[in-house]
Task: structure prediction
Amino acid sequence: MICNIIRYRAIILLLGVLFGHNISYCQKYDDHVYRLIISSSMFQNTKPEDVEASTKILAAELNKNGNIKAKFEISVCENEKELLDSLKTQFDILYISPIEYLKLKKKFSIQPTLLSEIDNSYGDIYYLITNKKGNKKTLRDIKDGIIYVLSNSEGQAPSLWLDKILKDNNLPSQNKYFKQVNFDYKTTNVVLPVFFNKADAAIVTESAFNLICELNPKIKNEAIIVLKSKPFPNALFCSDGRSKDEERKNFLLKYLQELHKNNYGKQVLTLYMVDRLIPFKQEYLDNILELYK
Result:
């Protein structure tokens, strides 16, 4: 198989919800294979022991309900090529970033159906922060400095936003403007260097910043929020436009939207670091599209 199978905890738990709480549907389609395709960009910090524990949780959930014969396949794609190859075969759920969606929709019939909601917002709000001790209050103050970005790679929303705000202020692109740009998916690795004189600035989500401030109130007192972004959706659940099985699609949509209503579903959403999943609207992509202007 092109992609790695059953690697990430949240997706494994998600299947426990989907295939453990509606036996009749799964029995009806027990000859079908449910395909979930996930971009590895959506999950980075997962330990092998978490995968093992999650597999046991899934097995226990399925055994508890019994008589479930539905087969499922989880493909985690490491790069764009693997995504392109996987999408050649019909799927049930595609879990990707909005940036990836904008690229892939040109080649495949992909239909966004749901996205994550955090703190009553449809997307992540990003902060550009500095340390009061450095007295750096504007973009121009951090020229030739070191900046950390909460992202697993360049080309995602926070990186695009950084280039956008530089361009809007008639400044060079990030790789020319800063001495060093570092990407990391751990909040502590992004924020703490700013307050230990290891970096001049950081870009971090509002939710991640608020959480680290709760754990260390000193950071809140010492931080300057230089700029604040508009909300950018961080994840999309998409269905396959080639599929004509509306009952199958509706089943998946219904249960994904109701995850927040039960304890098991809340556990899944906690791993996603979101509050609930809400129906997709085209306007939710407007802020992302502005980053390309």
The domain at 4-120+233-290 is CATH 3.40.190.10 (D-Maltodextrin-Binding Protein; domain 2). Residues 31 and 46 are 32 Å apart (CA to CA).
